[in-house]
Amino acid sequence: FQMTNSSRNGKNDDLMTNQEEDTERGQWDGKFDFLMSMIAYAVGLGNVWRFPYLCYKNGGGTFLVAYSFFFVLAAVPIFVMEVSIGQFLQKGAMEMWRMCPLFKGVGIGNVVIAFMCIAYFCVIVSWAVFYMISSFNSTFPWETCNNWWNTANCLSGNENATVANALRLKLKLLNQTTETSVEQFWEKRVLYQTDSIDEFGGIQWELLTIMFFAWLIIYFALWKGITSARKFVYFCALFPYFLIFVLLIRGLTLDGASTGISFYLTPNMTKLADTTVWKDAGTQVFYSYGVGFGALIALGSHNKRDHNCFRDAVVMCFINGSTSIIAGFAIFSILGHMSVIANKDISEIVKPGVGLAFLAYPEVATRLPLKQLWAFLFFLMITILGLDSQVCMMEGLFTALEDAFPILRRHKKIALGVCCFGFFLLGIPMVTYSGVHWLNLFDQYGASGYALLFVVFFEVIGLSWGFGAEKIRVAIKSMTGIQLSGIWVLLWKFASPLTSFLLFIFCVVYYKPLYYAGTHQPYPTWANVFGFFLSSCSMLSIPLYALYYLIFENRHLSFKERLIRGVRPTSLSDNGTQRAEEMTFLPTNK
To answer: Helix, strand, or coil here: 557?
Structure first.
C-alpha cells in the first residue's frame, strides 16, 4: 500500500473511504458530542463497580500503585492511539486493518471481546433496577432481619451493640459467623444465589423481565444510529457525577470512614509480589478505559477528520482515572463504616465479589435523610452507567459489523433488533440462581484477563510496528495540527506492547483457577475449561486469520510477497502537511 492524494488519481474503486459511505455511517454534530460519548462509554460500571471491588480484593493501596503504573505506560498511549486511528481511517475495528491486512484478526478479536462484555452488562443493570424498585418501601428490605429470606445469623445495622455482641458470641460458639442484612438481601433475595455454578437452579424471573426492558431501551437508543445515541449519552454522561459526589460526601461523614480510607490508601508492599495484583490492575486499566473492545475506534471514526481527537482523548483519560479514584473513596469510606457496625476487620467485612457495590450502596442509603429518594437516585446512577456503556459498546460492535458487511447498514433496524434479542437470550443463564457465577466466568475469562491482554498486545504491535508509530504521530498532526513529542512514539513502540506482553506472560505463568467470591473453593474443572474456551474465541482469531490471509489471499504472489503485502503499511508524507481529508489508501501495483 502507499499513501497518495486522491485528487491525483482517477481510480476510486479501491478507496478505503468514500464520501457516500461516510455520509451513511454518520458523524458527530456538536463540538462536544465525541467527548460526551467517550465519557458515557469509558466512565461506567468499571469505575464504580469493578475498580472498588478489585481494589478491595487486592489490598487497597497496593492495587493503586500497580494501577498507576499501567495507567502511564499503557492506558493513555493506547487510548490516544485507538481514538486517533479510528478518526484518521474513518473505519471500525475490523475494516481499519485493510491497511495492514495480516492483522485483521485483531479486529475480529476486538469484536469478540466486546461481544463477551455486552453479554453480561444488562444483567448488572437488572440488579440495579431491582434495588431501585425495592427502595420505594418505607423500610428498605435490606435494612432488617425479619424478612422471609433472612437466617438466624443475620445482623441488622439497626441492632444495638448489646444485641449484636450477644449474637456474635452465640454464633461463635456454634462455629458460625454473622452476615449483615445487606449481604443476605443481595445473595438470598436478589440473586437467589446457589453455592456453586453446578447448581443451576431456576430463573430469577424479576431480573429476566428487567433485562428484557433494558435491551428494549438500548435498541431504541441506537436504532437511528449516532443521531439517536448522542441524545442519550449526553444525559447519561453527566448526571452520574452529581450522584457520585453526593455519595462521596455522605460516605466521608460516616463513623469509621477513616478506617476504610486508610485501607484504601495504605499499600501493603509485600502484596506487590503477588502477580494477581498486577494482573488485576493491568486488566482493570484496559477494561475501565475500554481499550481492546473496538468501541473507541468506532466512536473516533464518527468524528470529522479535522477534529482535535488528541485533546479529547487525553482529557478523557484523566477524567476516567479521577472518577475511579473518587468512586474508590466513596466505597471504602462506606466499607469502613460497615466494619464498625459488624465489628470485623475491613478486609473481612464483605465478600470481594462482583456484587461489592451492591453491598456498599444500600448500606449508606439507610443512613441518609430522605433515604428512599437517595437510594432511588443511587441505583438510577448505576443503571445509567450500565446502559450508556452498553449503548457505546453496541455502537462499536455494530459499526465494525456494518463496515465489514455493508448490507447491515441498509437494514439497520432489523439487524440491530436481531442482535439485541440474541444478547438477551445469551444473558438468560446469568439471571438463573447460579447466574452470578456465570457472569464472573464471562467477566474474568471472556471480557478481561488473558484474552484482553493478548488482543491488545497484537493491536499495539500491528499499529505501532505494522502501520508505524511515527506515521500515527504524523496522522495526528495532519488532523489536529499538534506535533507530538517523540516520547509518544517510544510509548507506542516499546512501553505499551512490552507492558501488555509481560502482563500476559505473568497471567499464564502464575495462573490460578477461578474461585467463588470470598471463599477458597475453586470453580469446577469444567467451568475453568469453558473459561479458556471463551478466552480462545478472541485470541485464536489473530493467528487463524493471519494463516488464512497467507494461504488464501493473493495466491498469485509468492509467500514472501504475501507476507510483505500483509504487513506493509501505506506511507504518509514525511512532513505531515497533507490535508487529512485528502488522504486515502490505494492498493499498490508493486
So the answer is: coil
Residue 43 annotated in ligand binding: yes
Helices (H), 49-196: 51-57, 61-70, 76-89, 104-134, 161-173, 181-184
Bridge pairing between strands 179-180 and 583-586: unpaired
- The DSSP annotation for 170-226 comes to HHHHTT---EEHHHHIIIIIIS---SSTT----B-HHHHHHHHHHHHHHHHHHTTTH
Q: What is the pTM of this model?
A: 0.86
80 is in an annotated binding site: no
156 marked as part of a ligand binding site:
no
What helix, strand, coil percent values describe the chain, rounded to 5? Answer: 70, 5, 25
Element (H, E) at 42: helix 33-42
Cβ–Cβ contacts within 10 Å for residue 534, how many? Answer: 22
* Residue 389 among known ligand-binding residues: yes
* pLDDT for the residue 353: 64
For residues 432 and 203, is the Cβ–Cβ distance under 8 A? yes
In the prediction, which pLDDT does 87 show? 95
Q: CA nearest 230: which of 241, 221, 238, 239?
A: 221
Q: What whole-number distance in Å separates Cα of residue 194 and Cα of residue 432?
A: 9
Known binder of ligand: residue 288? yes
The identity of residue 3, as a single letter, is M
Instruction: Confirm or deny that 385 is annotated as ligand binding.
Output: yes
Cα angle: 401, vertex 123, 116; to 5 degrees: 35
Residue 412 CA to residue 220 CA, distance in Å, equals 12
The full DSSP string for 90-106 is: T--TTGGGGGSGGGHHH
CA distance 209 to 186: 18
Spell out the residues 6+ positions from residue 259 whose beta carbon is closer than 8 angstroms to its own: 336, 339, 340, 346
Q: Is position 5 annotated in a ligand binding site?
A: no
Question: d(Cα 305, Cα 84) in Å, to the nearest integer?
Answer: 10
State the DSSP code for 571.
P
Ordered by start, the domain boundaries in the chain are 2-586
* pLDDT tens-place string over residues 508-558: 888 888 988 767 789 999 999 999 999 999 999 999 999 999 999 888 889
42 annotated as ligand-binding:
yes
* Domain 2-586 top-level CATH class: mainly alpha
